Amino acid sequence: MLLGVVGAPNKGKSTFFAAVTMVDAAIANYPFTTTTASRGVTYVRAQCPHVELGLKACNPKNSKCVDGVRLVPVGIIDTPGLVPEAHKGRGLGNRFLDSLREADVFIQVVDGSGKTDLHGNPCQGCSPMDEVAFLKEEIAMWVFEIMKRKGGGRHLALKEAALSLSGLRISEGMLLQAAASCGLEVGDGTMPDDDGMKRIAQKLVEMRFPIAVAFNKVDLPGAKEEFEKARQRGLENVFACSAAIELALRKAAEHGLIEYAPGQGSFKLVGTPDEKQKEALSQIDAFLKAHKSSGVQEIIDWAVYKKMGAIVVYPVEDEHRLSNHKGEILPDAFLVPKGTTARQLAGMVHSELAAKFIGAIDVKRKTRIGADHLLGDGDVIKIIAGR
Ligand SMILES: Nc1nc2c(ncn2[C@@H]2O[C@H](COP(=O)(O)OP(=O)(O)O)[C@@H](O)[C@H]2O)c(=O)[nH]1
Ligand SMILES: [Mg+2]
User: Which ligand is nearest to the CA of 111?
Assistant: First the structure.
């Protein structure tokens, strides 16, 4: 599962990415995914089962537990800025679009202060919500052009269209579903005309790339009013945030100045800041008091749980001690898609476990479960495998 940070230039994508991937060394070393300039690991929050199960503590290995909140790793990529006409190769054009292929859900960063345009240039009163419409349309046109190229001027068969989109993980079934929801007839195995294909492309983008909108830079004047306007339009996937505030908080925590965990509405001063740092911290404090939090962690959580439909499961080797063979309690937290079965989880833990799978135990409910049992959020699972 992978989050993609997307949007036009100068909106704060890299700031957002830098903030959310600032994790302590123990976690950054976890071989979950290679960390490069544009690829990293962030966290989602979950209720740690050690609390519910009445244990004093746990020993997380791939994750972290802060006051009963388990921080579960999830991969994230930063992408280059998308500019208008990118699908025709403008800006970084296709390189941008290609970088999107891997992502399951987008976090679109927009400039909530309205002070940059779609090219990232300074402007006054640009509407952040125009950026949302623009991104969808640009990606839809990209999808359309891929199908169109495949046809080379001919009328395209449905199967050919599906083949051309397989690299985007768009299946024939999705294509059929998109056509049906546009009220277009493709039952005879051929695609509609350009207009119809564009509509299908738009639908496919909605289906394949769910978007959470990070309404960023709300620390700047004017942003709050813009956010209220967006809210009045009833958009449930738009969240106000300040990536700059979140980055400053995590940096201050890294330098030992404050204690702060992602998503918290306040921090605790533990170091001795100099005058400049004091001033910055008091501004951050004022922001947190006014906004409850930086807003960044809420977006990650919402994107992963609501848009990706993920759940967290905790595999253990010893169902009595809730530990691995070293006695470490609830060591791993896995983010998996809703609908994951016990056998699939075994495969995620170790390919050999899946091959030798016999059954599993739902540890919280103390019941034996079978290979096809659907796992639930927060389940603690012991896999039983043969020798
Ligand atoms: N005030 C404010 N500035 C921000 C925020 N996030 C990013 N910026 C600034 O916006 C500019 C562009 O940020 P960057 O992360 O490079 O944007 P990108 O091109 O979308 O990756 C930089 O000057 C950032 O410091 C924010 O939350 N608040
Ligand atoms: Mg950037």
Answer: 1
The response to whether residue 242 sits with its C-beta less than 6 Å from ligand 1 reads yes
Question: Which tokens in the block code for residue 129?
Answer: 């919500």
Instruction: Please state the length of the chain.
Output: 387
Contact yes or no for 216/16 (Cβ under 8 A): yes
Distance 120 CA to ligand 1 centre (A): 11
**Nearest ligand to residue 240 Cα:** 1
The minimum-distance atom of ligand 1 relative to the CA of 15 is 15
Q: What is the mean pLDDT of each run of 10 residues along the chain (387 residues)?
A: 92 94 53 57 96 95 94 92 76 68 94 93 91 92 90 84 92 94 87 93 96 96 90 88 96 93 94 94 96 97 96 97 96 96 95 93 97 98 94
* b/e burial code for range 9-32 (CB count within 10 A of at least 16 → b): bbbbbbbbbbbbbbbeeebeeeeb
Q: How many whole angstroms from 112 Cα to the centroid of ligand 1?
A: 11
Cβ(344) to ligand 1 under 6 A?
no
With a 6 Å cutoff on the Cβ, whether 219 touches ligand 1 is yes
For residue 155, count other CB atoms closer than 10 A to its CB: 10
* 119 token code pair: 């090219």
Contacts 24+ apart (CB under 8 A), 259-263: 261/66, 261/67, 261/69, 261/71, 262/20, 262/43, 262/45, 262/71, 262/296, 262/297, 263/45, 263/293, 263/296, 263/297, 263/298, 263/301
Domains and CATH numbers, the chain: 310-385 (3.10.20.30)
* 136 C-alpha to ligand 1 centroid (Å): 22
Beta strand 2-6 pairing with 69-78: parallel
Joined together, the tokens standing for residue 268 give: 């605790």
